[in-house]
Every structure is written in C-alpha cells, then in structure tokens.
Amino acid sequence: MADVDASTNLRVRSLYPYETQWAEDLNFGENVVIEAHPSKFGGDWWYGTTVNDGRSGFSPQTYVPVVEPGLIDRGYFSKETSSHT
C-alpha cells in the first residue's frame, strides 16, 4: 500500500474481466465502475474499490481506463451504446 496515491481518486471502468491471482487483487467482470488510486511511482497496478459492492484490491491499470466525468451517467459505456468511440 506504500505505492498507492490515496490522495488521487479516479473513476475508472473495466474493459475486461480480471480474475485474481493474489489475495490482495480485485476480481471483477467487464464494465464495472471502480474508484481507483494510481501508483505514486507510475506502477502498472492500481488500488481500487468497486462502486456497486465495495470490494477492494489491486488491479492492472491497463484493464481500467479513466472515465471522463458524465460518460457513465449518460450510458456511454453500456453494452447498448458500445458503438460510441
């Protein structure tokens, strides 16, 4: 946890499902909204908490791009509107 920047809170959405490999990892499916804290030193693993059920852990940063404010609320990332780019 020393590598986690707790002062930075980013809303991200999972592109792919991630199955945990270690006890401290966060398991999630595709299209899950997560409040994430990036690495202080630019590391590839971010610490996050799922918005829908409050589970926490580490996940690969490449699975969870930052979402622009308002895009989640407008359904930008929903399966019904996946044609948006």
Report on this structure:
With 85 residues, the chain is mostly beta strands. The protein has one domain (10-81): Roll (SH3 type barrels). The chain contains no helices and 4 strands. Residues 78-85 have low confidence and may be disordered. Keywords: SH3 domain. This is SH3 domain-containing protein. It comes from Pisolithus microcarpus 441. InterPro entries: SH3-like_dom_sf, SH3_domain.
Q: Which key features would you list for this structure?
A:
85 residues; mainly beta; SH3 type barrels; 4-stranded antiparallel β-sheet; 4 strands; 0% helix; globular; disordered C terminus; SH3 domain-containing protein; SH3-like_dom_sf; SH3_domain
Number of helices: 0
- Order of strands in the sheet with most strands: 1-2-3-4
Class from helix and strand fractions: mainly beta
Question: How many E strands?
Answer: 4
CATH superfamily: SH3 Domains
What is the beta-strand fraction?
Answer: 15-25%
**Shape summary:** globular
Helix content: under 10%
Major sheet details: 4 strands, antiparallel
Uncertain runs: 78-85
Give the C-alpha Rg. 13 Å
Overall number of structural domains? 1
The arrangement of helices and strands along the chain is EEEE
CATH architectural label: Roll
